[in-house]
Amino acid sequence: MAVIRTDARRRAACAIVALLLGSHWARGAAADDPSAGDGGVSAFYRWPGTLPPRPGILLRQEPLPAAHMIAHAAFGARILYTASAGAGPQRTIPVSGEVFLPAGTPPKGGWPVLAWAHGTTGIADVCAPSWRGQTKRDSAYLAAWLAHGFAIVATDYAGLGTQGVHPYLLWRSEGLAILDALRAARATAGFHLANRIVLAGQSQGAGAALGAAWLHPRYAPALGVRAAVLTGLVATIASGRPDEKGTAYTDPFDMDPSFAMLRFAGTDRASHPDMDPQTYLTPQGKMLLHVAQTACLHDMFAASAKAGITKGGALFSRSIAAVDSDMESHFDLPDGHITMPVFVGTGLADGEAGTQGQYLAVASMCAAGSKVAWHTYPGLTHNGTVNQSLADSLPFAARALAGEPIASNCASLVRPGKVEAAKRGVEFND
User: Fold this and answer.
1) Which class would CATH give 7-240+335-412?
2) Could you give the CA distance from residue 367 to residue 396 in angstroms, rounded to a whole number?
3) 3-state DSSP call for residue 421?
4) Where do the structural domains in the chain lie, given as residue ranges?
5) Order of strands, edge to edge, in the sheet holding 342-347?
6) What is the predicted pLDDT for the residue at 292?
7) Calpha distance 193→100 (Å, rounded)
């Protein structure tokens, strides 16, 4: 259950996570750690020298392989940049990502920017989108923004591509990676990026983008972030609202085994870097952990199905409370007050993130006085909502960048019922 925390407890929790993440990376920087999912990527992702102490510095770039380019992109590059590992700006780590630029001449002042935060890919380095390429669904989504004249700045997040444990779903680390990628990319003269920015994310990335939106006025107020666009939102806001998302979305023993393993080996281990995951796992759990450390989400789905594992409980040989019981304090946003307009797109057939948690997050933002435009889509799934919502989110972003009034529907929220059946014949609506 989400609880109201004092500001002191919130600051302490964030400081602890920052210290742990930063110290873990420092220990692992000299050599890859296979137990953290390190390895399988090129030397581009390993920075051999001393890091600049300031976050948001571009370390290097290289052209993307032709196979990784997406429609309407005239330019694409991998980037490696410095980012804050936690709350303190003096502790920096290397993080990787991508930049795509649209065709044509940049408008006066530069291209408007979409800061893209990707959904769950896994926790291994090889799952970084800048290394493996964007999915077909995400390529179609980003191509639509490029076609409308947006440049794309897309972080991989800490620990994907680069060394160390990927702090899966930890909004502070992910949000800082987004904001520091924007700083680094905007300071690169050849990219011609305007200080007119829209945050966007799907699933894990929606929570990351929401984290960046919350952090923006506190951490990077000079960035001209005007709006946030979130689909398939995975986030909880510590507002005191009862947690009614259901154990399939909150309890590792009851959730899908692949997501349970990502939470255990990513979220929990990032917060407890000295734990030995092997000591908590059954033989089936050790098998799936190895897949998580060397492959990506759909490989985990396949391995779970082949082994007949249907629930996370089959992975664990004993209680994981010692490393998981504080997960909520690191996962929950402190409050729902967002200083920019927020678009949330929820498919009413979203059985992957669930609809109740998305409703609760929207309601918490509304209760905190945020301006939220919540759009629900009958029959659309977690995947299907991403591109189908463009008909609403692109005009929303255009209005926000133009400084036009954004209508909020907070006064007319309707809680969704049971997850619906998926519509047939809709692209990506699996």
Assistant:
1) alpha beta
2) 21
3) coil
4) 7-240+335-412, 252-328
5) 58-63, 73-84, 92-102, 151-155, 111-117, 193-202, 225-231, 342-347, 372-377
6) 97
7) 11
Q: Give the β-pairing of 342-347 and 225-231.
A: parallel
3-state class (DSSP) for residue 127: helix
Write the single-letter amino acid at 137: R
Average pLDDT, the chain: 90
Q: In this structure, how many other beta carbons lie within 10 angstroms of the beta carbon of residue 379? A: 16
Annotate 104-126 with b (16+ C-beta within 10 A) or e (fewer): eebeeeebbbbbbbbbbbbbbbb
Q: Contact at 8 Å (CB) between 141 and 118?
A: no
92-102 and 151-155: which strand pairing?
A: antiparallel
pLDDT tens by residue, 87-139? 434 589 999 999 999 999 999 999 999 999 999 999 999 999 999 999 999 99
Q: How far apart are CA 295 and CA 284, in angstroms?
A: 16
Task: Find tokens 């500001």 and name the residue.
Answer: 7
Q: Over the stretch 144-162, which tens digit does the pLDDT of each residue have?
A: 999 999 999 999 999 999 9
- Residue 290: which H helix or E strand, with range? helix 283-294
Query: What confidence tier does 30 reach under pLDDT thresholds 50, 70, 90?
Result: low
